[in-house]
Amino acid sequence: MSGPAVHPVEVPPQTTEAAPPTVRMKDVPGMAGTVGALCLRLCQVVFAVVSLCVMATTSDFPSVTAFRYLVAAVGLQSLWSMLLALADVYALLVKRRFRNSGAVSLFAVGDGVTSTLTFAAACASAGITVLIGNDLNKCNMNHCSRFMSSTAMAFLSWFAVLPSFLLNFWTLASR
């Protein structure tokens, strides 16, 4: 019969050296405080403002709830994206990145909320636009081309917000 064998292990010698420095995560193009993030933010602002202006210049948008929702959502999106674009400009000027988990959490939550609102508003407006244009055949009495343009710009704004949200969320989750 064999019994358990005990193999002695030597204890490593005590050292008084400091711990090695921690390795910082590499900057992902598009994370907050980079040139990629600034480009994404500027695209978000441009598309949201164009969508807002096109929809707001039509005379009959207040009569449809989905169009009013689109104006509110892209208005909020343009304000949020403009504030974060200014924060990115500041970070680039002082040559620092946003590594504070509180700031990155705020960016991720804000991007998540505004992207969800923008996507829902764009989908609702697209549904109403299809209803007016294809099902009711009343495009000659309405501003269908403007409604379609505004809805398309809202979708493009959402396409620009989505990478920002995913990169901020990834940065937050990789801590």
Name some characteristics of this structure:
175 residues; elongated; 4 helices; 0% strand; single chain; mainly alpha
Can you describe what's shown?
This protein is mainly α and 175 residues long. The protein has one domain. The chain is 66% helix and 0% strand. It has 4 helices and no strands. It has helices at 35-56, 65-93, 101-135, 144-173. Helix 2 (65-93) crosses helix 4 (144-173). The radius of gyration is 25 Å and the shape is elongated. The model has no long low-confidence stretch (mean pLDDT 87).
Concise structural overview:
By secondary structure, this protein is mainly alpha-helical. It has helices spanning 35-56, 65-93, 101-135, 144-173. The termini are far apart.
Write the layout of secondary structure elements.
Elements: H1 35-56, H2 65-93, H3 101-135, H4 144-173
Query: What's the count of strands?
Result: 0
What helical percentage do the residues reach?
Answer: 55-70%
Q: Over all CA atoms, what is the radius of gyration?
A: 25 Å
Number of continuous helical runs: 4
Reported for the largest beta sheet, the result is: none
